[in-house]
Write a structure and sequence with these properties.
This protein is mainly β and 356 residues long. The chain is built from 2 helices and 22 strands. A 7-stranded antiparallel sheet has the order 17-16-20-21-22-19-18, covered by helices on one side. The chain has a 5-stranded mixed sheet with strand order 1-8-7-3-4. A hairpin with a 5-residue loop joins strand 16 (231-236) and strand 17 (242-247).
Length: 356
């Protein structure tokens, strides 16, 4: 199904012969629900002039307000439906206005995602059914880790549009053993990146369409870090799905405080007390800051770094953060033989609980 990436404009055009104007109706609903009989939004316009008859409508803002990310499944041993709040169905009806009546032109349906396209992708970009860029990804492997109780060691998940006839094949990177898995019942499915029994070896993942053509290939490889504690960072990528990246080497925790100040009013010179001072602080609170290093990685990490810094939803160990790093040189192997990225994050809450 065609997709709407709601962080970029999704333009619907109406330009018909002898139109005096137009309108579109937008219907939004969750997976498993029945499409509403009445539109949540109706947009209409008259044509600019007799020689400029085209009308443009941007559907994205109405789709995006219908999406939310309040949970992260982080699957590691199951295949199941993606949280229905993270995507939606969209139906758009286009009408021509003749000056006296609206005439229905067509009806189209889409999947709405909290993703985006780059400027060079053009308008209304169309990406594949697999919501992760192809490439090689590394995960933290600890042979004594309990994945059920220690989610920080999970390799992450891969979100795929579960089109009828599509399948996923896992190939062990050491033994070449092959296992295929089927999708769940949802329109989008979260599948594990690494087959649960192959964490020590890693695997190749291939996504096949209904004609057995390979539409996406991934390599998920284990890395063991004996000196530092690797930190997983989860974020919503450009496809509108969760993506996990590990920062393997040294990490640094710090905190900083903020406050407001005012000058005390002394009632008289007779009450002067040097112990009190002249300034007072109030609304004092703090922020925790975390600085992470990816470790030595290849040039293939560049796209993930871009999408991480562009993401509006980032979590570390289940807690919300926001990137403090706003500028990052994208390193090249030909220039930098040992590519390591250092990023700084700020936890998105006050250290002293101030929630009312």
């Amino acid at each position: 199904m065609n997709k709407i990436y709601a962080r970029s404009p999704f333009i619907v055009e109406v330009d018909e012969v002898n139109q005096a104007g137009s309108k579109i109706e937008i219907f939004l609903w969750k997976d498993g629900q029945v499409a509403p009989s009445l539109p949540q939004h109706t947009l209409s316009k008259l044509i600019p002039s007799a020689t400029n008859t085209i009308n443009y409508y941007n559907v994205s803002p109405y789709v995006r307000e219908f999406l939310s990310f309040t949970d992260y499944a982080n699957v590691y041993n199951t295949v199941g439906s993606t949280d229905i709040d993270q995507y939606c169905f969209v139906k758009v009806k286009r009408y021509k206005y003749t000056g006296s009546a609206y005439i229905l032109l067509n009806t189209r349906e889409y999947i709405g995602l909290d993703g985006y396209g780059y400027y060079e992708d053009g308008s209304n970009p169309a990406f594949l059914e697999s919501l992760l860029d192809e490439g090689t990804y590394y995960y933290n492997y600890n042979p004594i880790a309990n994945l059920a109780t220690e989610p920080q060691y999970r390799a992450g998940q891969l979100t795929i549009e579960a089109v009828a006839g599509y399948s996923v094949k896992y190939t062990n990177l050491v033994t070449n053993t092959i296992i295929s898995v089927s999708f769940g019942t949802g329109t989008l499915n979260d599948v594990y990146r690494v087959y649960p029994l192959w964490y020590a070896d890693g695997n190749k993942v291939e996504v096949f369409d209904d004609l057995l053509n390979i539409i996406a290939t991934y390599y998920f490889r284990p890395l063991s870090e004996c000196r530092y504690e690797p930190i997983p960072v989860d974020f919503i990528n450009k496809h509108g799905a969760w993506q996990r990246e590990f920062f393997f080497t040294a990490s640094f925790d710090s905190f900083e405080t903020t406050s407001n100040q005012y000058h005390l009013m002394m009632p008289s010179i007779n009450s002067y007390n040097p112990f009190i001072g002249q300034m007072k602080e109030f609304n004092k609170n703090g922020k925790k800051v975390l600085r992470l290093n990816t470790g030595i990685r290849g040039e293939g990490m560049n796209e993930s770094i871009k999408q991480l810094l562009l993401s509006e939803k980032v979590i570390i160990n289940g807690l919300p953060v926001k990137p403090r790093t706003t500028s990052q040189e994208l390193l090249k192997d030909i220039n930098t033989k040992t590519i390591n990225y250092t990023l700084e994050f700020e936890y998105s809450y006050d250290m002293i609980n101030s929630v009312l």
